[in-house]
Design goal:
The strands form six sheets. Strands 12, 15, 17, 18, 19, 21, 22 and 23 form an eight-stranded mixed β-sheet that branches. Strands 1, 2, 3, 4, 6, 10 and 11 form a seven-stranded parallel β-sheet that branches. Strand 17, helix 15 and strand 18 form a beta-alpha-beta unit. This protein has 603 residues and is an alpha/beta fold. It has a domain of 210 residues: Alpha-Beta Complex (2-enoyl-CoA Hydratase, Chain A, domain 1).
Length: 603
């Protein structure tokens, strides 16, 4: 007994000691961060002087909205602690630059930007608006990758390195079909679903894409590519949609030298990067030595002023970004967080209307239903509700959208996917291969149904199918009511099929093509607010201690953290695997469609 007491005391002491060590590491991290921030600020220009140039780095990822930095140990260990750019901040900075008399031009430095097409299009539209002010937009890249080129083609002056190429190849995506792998592992996936086009389950049960899935993607990609070609051709006087197809499909322009890109009208001239200061200075009529390049962060404060949340005439913009879940998770839409928020806004007499910004492929059926009900409650208070769709607003994302008074979407939004599926694994074959024999005892024969270690029988499959169909009927009724269309029509355009926004507009799933500001303007008009109102965004951004890490000038601290964690990747992988396994088995989730430009690697 005494030995056990000392062992417990020793283990408690060791645990406390380790906690103190880790706390010390964190303290060092923060200390270095503060010092780096202070030290680096002395050499950075904090003034937007006359003749300044707003510089946007078109590289890395662009996310929807600023969020608190969530500590990601894998990123720390890989020395990758950066805060992604956000569409909201970039758009705000460009608008500020458009009106700021000290900003003379906008400079786009292209270096391989990664974002959904709708995000790129929203940024591009803002650049076009900037051009209308009469201020020049200048774009440059050593290589112009497809996503870069789409945005940069809106510039007045488009230049490239003589050694580079325009890497334009079209759009598309690839899905891995895993049935062959699961067969070897001895894992079978049992599927119940509603919708011919509900293809999210296919990679688990097929070895190749089904004909309906391929047909919907052919249509989706084709419609979106047509829009992209027309936009690029409209901005570049020598190009037509047909000539772009020829350059991509016949001439393989991504392999051609820069001089051919100039002849084709894709770019204006070729310059080495070292020459660009003189080029920009000449365009804006300034001495190259006196050029002042400013970043978006110098024009925009990412954290909204608290006073806006207390104003009496207020429009709430609620960002619903990520998968819809039934509890927790960074970058998700958790109904346990969103339902109380929406109810609070409904009961707040100072909130006159709401814009729900949806950027979600869907997710849990239960969570979607709870959020949908909260939005109905908001409207019951006689307050207008508009939805602004981002890159995706499909399946569960459409469930929470369809009841709005008006739905806005970017022309490149993916929406629809009205359908539900259940995916239940059966690992009995794997257990047999491993020599594992699960043994169960229950009071009732089906008490463990569904069980991941044995297949469902016909009666159980039938019960699951009925359950899924009941959820689908509920989905259809909600769409029919919100969109004011017969259920029979919803069933025709449903079936799990995904639609591009332009098609969705034609069939009645969307009301208008536009962005967040268009939705805000509509709410202001419906609520008779005129121009005397504030906009507050939710969920509120609350900074954490980790937010200082991306601002460090020197990243020596991540080595200390790596030493403290001792490169323990196994535990991290288990953590992520567990999150995957804990996903609800019945989902309103669109297929895994990540529509992006095909990006050739620089040769």
């Amino acid at each position: 007994m005494l030995k056990k007491f000392f062992m417990n005391m020793l283990s408690s002491f060791v645990g406390a000691w380790l906690a103190l060590v880790l706390f010390g590491v964190v303290a060092v991290l923060v200390g270095i961060g503060v010092a780096a921030k202070i030290g680096s600020s002395s050499g950075e220009s904090k003034e937007v002087s006359k003749g300044s140039v707003l510089t946007i780095e078109l590289q890395g990822t662009i996310e929807e909205r600023e969020t608190p930095l969530d500590i990601d140990y894998i990123s720390l260990l890989q020395r990758d602690i950066t805060r992604p750019q956000t569409l909201t901040n970039l758009v705000s900075a460009i608008r500020e630059a458009k009106e700021n008399k000290n900003i003379s031009a906008l400079y786009l430095k292209c270096g391989g930007v990664s974002a959904p097409l709708a995000t790129l299009n929203a940024l591009r539209e803002e650049i076009k608006s900037f051009r209308e002010s009469g201020k020049p937009v200048i774009a440059y890249g050593n290589y112009l990758f497809s996503s870069d080129y789409f945005v940069a083609s809106a510039a007045n002056h488009l230049y490239m390195n003589p050694g580079g190429q325009v890497m334009l190849q079209g759009i598309g995506g690839t899905n891995l079909y895993l049935k062959g792998l699961f067969d070897k592992l001895g894992i079978e996936y049992q599927v119940v679903k509603v919708g011919t086009y509900k293809s999210a389950v296919e990679p688990y049960i097929l070895t190749e894409m089904s004909a309906p899935a391929r047909a919907q993607l052919d249509t989706l990609y084709g419609n979106m590519w047509s829009y992209l070609r027309e936009e690029m051709a409209e901005s570049r006087s020598k190009l037509t949609p047909q000539s772009i197809d020829t350059l991509v499909s016949k001439d393989f322009i991504f392999l051609r030298p820069g001089s051919d890109a100039v002849k084709a009208g894709l770019v204006d001239k070729l310059y080495f990067e070292r020459e660009m200061d003189k080029v920009i200075a000449k365009i804006i009529g300034k001495d190259p030595e006196k050029l002042n390049f400013v970043s978006p962060s110098l024009l925009v404060d990412p954290v909204e002023a608290a006073s806006k949340f207390d104003s009496k005439e207020r429009i709430a913009v609620v960002y619903a970004v990520g998968q819809i879940v039934d509890g927790g998770g960074t970058g998700t839409i958790d109904f346990e967080e969103y339902v109380p928020l929406i109810v609070k806004l409904a009961d707040d007499k100072n909130v006159k209307g709401m814009v729900l910004r949806v950027n979600s492929p869907g997710g849990a059926v239960f969570g979607s239903e709870q959020i949908g009900d909260a939005l109905d409650y908001f409207q019951s208070k006689k307050k207008p509700l508009a939805v602004s769709m981002g890159a995706y607003a499909a399946s569960g994302g459409y469930w929470i959208s369809c009841g709005a008074n008006r739905i806005f979407a970017d022309p490149l939004t993916i929406t629809g996917s009205i359908g539900i599926f259940g995916l239940i694994p059966n690992a009995s074959g794997l257990c047999e291969k491993l020599g594992v024999s699960p043994q169960s005892v229950y009071t009732n024969p089906d008490a463990d149904f569904p069980n991941g270690f044995k297949p469902m029988n016909e009666r159980q499959l039938s019960a699951m199918q009925t359950y899924v169909e009941r959820g689908y009927d509920k989905f259809v009724k909600r769409v029919a009511k919100g969109r004011k269309m017969p259920e029979s029509k919803v069933r025709v355009i449903g079936e799990g099929r995904v639609w591009d926004a332009q098609s969705a507009l034609r069939i009645g799933l969307v009301d208008e093509l536009g962005e967040v500001d268009d939705a805000i303007d509509w709410i202001a008009e419906k609520a008779s607010l005129g121009t005397n109102y504030n906009v507050s965004t939710y969920p509120k951004i609350e900074s954490s201690i980790w937010d200082i890490l991306p601002e460090m000038a020197q990243m020596e601290s991540d080595k200390a953290l790596a030493d403290a964690l001792n490169d323990n990747y196994e535990l991290l992988l288990i953590k992520y695997a567990r999150k995957l396994l804990e996903r609800k088995r019945v989902q309103a989730l669109m297929p895994d469609i990540d529509v992006r430009f095909v990006e050739a690697k620089a040769l």
